[in-house]
């Protein structure tokens, strides 16, 4: 059987109704409008529109984020810690996983942690998740004899060295992150210490 014969024997496809064509057009137009608003320059119009479009864009996975490349690439090296204060007045520091201190196997296994703790947690656009991070740290350090009462997240930074061809700084020799900025404080509630399902 050749192509022409097969085409004659195949079921005839009905053309789309006006209702279906209109629905497809509106869906495609809404997609392009959402993406164009999302990547447009900052301003009042964008702020107003994102109030309605952000939940849709994030739920459907079409949200775009180009902060790594533009308009202002990061000019700092950083890592995150949490200070855990306990009932008896003692404190403990938790350092979130630092990829540069891991071998390649560990980095591969912990890539989701890097995404969560370095691309999301420290930046203002993800502030709504900070209480959940704090509750997780509190539960991980729960102790009936000495419960955590306060969690403080601290951003440790240091400007990146200038690209100087006469004195390159190797990645393993980058300056320590000595600028410390607390950016979120969470008072632990008793119900935070017990995971609910």
| Strand and helix order | HHHEEHHHEE
**Using only CA atoms, what is the Rg?**
25 Å
Figure out the total of helices. 6
Distance, first to last CA:
60 Å
Structural class: alpha+beta
> What is the total domain count?
2
Low-confidence spans: none
Helix residue percentage: 25-40%
| Strands ordered across the widest β-sheet | 2-1-3-4
Q: Which band does the percent of strand residues land in?
A: 15-25%
**What would the principal axes of the Cα set say about the shape?**
elongated
Largest sheet: 4 strands, antiparallel
Number of beta-strand segments: 4
Give the mean pLDDT: 85
Summarize the structure.
With 197 residues, this protein is α+β, with helices and mostly antiparallel strands.
Give an overview of the whole structure.
The chain has 6 helices and 4 strands. With 197 residues, it is α+β, with helices and mostly antiparallel strands. The model has no long low-confidence stretch (mean pLDDT 85). The protein has a 4-stranded antiparallel β-sheet, with helices on one face. The protein has helices spanning 3-9, 18-39, 44-60, 104-109, 111-120, 130-140; strands at 76-86, 91-95, 148-159, 179-187. It is 37% helix and 19% strand. The protein has 2 domains: 16-60, no CATH class; 76-193, no CATH class.
């Amino acid at each position: 059987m050749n192509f022409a014969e097969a085409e004659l024997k195949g079921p005839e496809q009905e053309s789309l109704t006006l209702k279906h064509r209109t629905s497809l057009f509106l869906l495609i137009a809404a997609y392009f409008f959402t993406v164009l608003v999302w990547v447009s320059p900052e301003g009042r119009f964008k702020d107003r529109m994102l109030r309605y479009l952000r939940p849709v864009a994030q739920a459907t996975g079409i949200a775009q984020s180009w902060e790594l490349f533009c308009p202002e690439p990061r000019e700092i090296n950083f890592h995150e810690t949490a200070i855990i204060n306990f009932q008896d007045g003692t404190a403990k520091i938790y350092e979130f996983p630092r990829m540069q201190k891991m071998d390649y196997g560990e980095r591969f296994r912990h890539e989701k942690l890097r995404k969560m703790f370095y691309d999301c947690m420290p930046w203002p656009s993800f502030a709504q998740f900070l209480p959940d991070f704090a509750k997780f740290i509190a539960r991980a350090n729960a102790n009936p004899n000495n419960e955590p009462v306060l969690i403080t997240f601290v951003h440790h930074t240091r400007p990146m060295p200038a690209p100087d061809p006469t004195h390159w700084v190797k990645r393993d020799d980058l300056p320590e992150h000595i600028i410390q900025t607390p950016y979120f404080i969470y008072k632990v509630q008793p119900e935070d210490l017990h995971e609910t399902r």
